[in-house]
Amino acid sequence: MSEDEARAWLSDHFSVSRGTWELLERYVGLLLAEMSNQNLIAESTRSQMWARHIVDSAQLSLLTGSAGTGPWVDLGSGAGLPGVVVAILSEREMLMIESRRKRVEFLNTVITELKLSNARIYGGRVETAPAINAAVISARAYAPLPKLLGSALHFSTDETLWVLPKGRNAENELEAARSSWQGVFHVERSVTDADSAIIVGHAVKPKVRKGRG
């Protein structure tokens, strides 16, 4: 997907007002400027910001049509992908969780600069964040699936929708998790990379191990 194709995709799939375009442009500018202070994205993706990062994040929103009301929780938000992008494109409350101080400071700057009233940051580990009932949980490049599910279980109900970009290892990670986790899972192909996939799940819970009789 080229940068022009990425912008066209956004226009085709979202009601992107002039103001929303400006917010996305400003966010890209803030992210690129911050790259001189910390490594937020791979250097090789600078020229593909809209395809590799903006659309790659925005596509997750299209998989959450069945989600109920309530906050979206993004684990290990880093540069704000997908958290900031989703917060710009929707009105859903967004809680981004990030433990690294410099990245927390960057995310707070982004929220302030873009006046994202529906977004907030928890600066700390996912496991220590106060429990809330999340409508959606996302995580991009956060942790292997079994660890990811365990760390965020206190945000999840039977109705919570999990949308988890997992690159080319999605099927393998899902298979590895099935021994200790249950739920209704399926895999969606990424619109930005035909070889990459997104795990979508709900009713996620640990399997109860039967004791030996």
Write up what this structure looks like.
By secondary structure, the chain is α/β, with parallel strands linked by helices. It has a single domain, classed as Rossmann fold (3-Layer(aba) Sandwich), CATH 3.40.50. It is 35% helix and 21% strand. It has helices at residues 3-13, 18-34, 49-58, 83-89, 101-114, 145-151, 170-177, and strands at 72-75, 94-98, 119-123, 136-139, 161-167, 181-189, 197-206. A 7-stranded mixed sheet has the order 3-2-1-4-5-7-6, with helices on both faces. Strand 1, helix 4 (83-89) and strand 2 (94-98) form a beta-alpha-beta unit. Helix 1 packs parallel to helix 3 (49-58) and helix 2 (18-34) packs antiparallel against helix 4. The longest helix has 17 residues, at 18-34. It is globular, with a radius of gyration of 17 Å. The protein starts with a helix and ends in a 7-residue tail after the last strand. The mean pLDDT is 92.
Question: In a nutshell, what does this entry contain?
Answer:
The protein is of the alpha/beta class and 213 residues long.
Looking at this protein, list some descriptive labels.
213 residues, alpha/beta, Rossmann fold, 7-stranded mixed beta sheet, 7 strands
Write the layout of secondary structure elements.
Elements: H1 3-13, H2 18-34, H3 49-58, E1 72-75, H4 83-89, E2 94-98, H5 101-114, E3 119-123, E4 136-139, H6 145-151, E5 161-167, H7 170-177, E6 181-189, E7 197-206
Parallel strand pairs: 1-2, 1-4, 2-3, 4-5
Antiparallel strand pairs: 5-7, 6-7
Helix pairs in contact: 1-3, 2-4
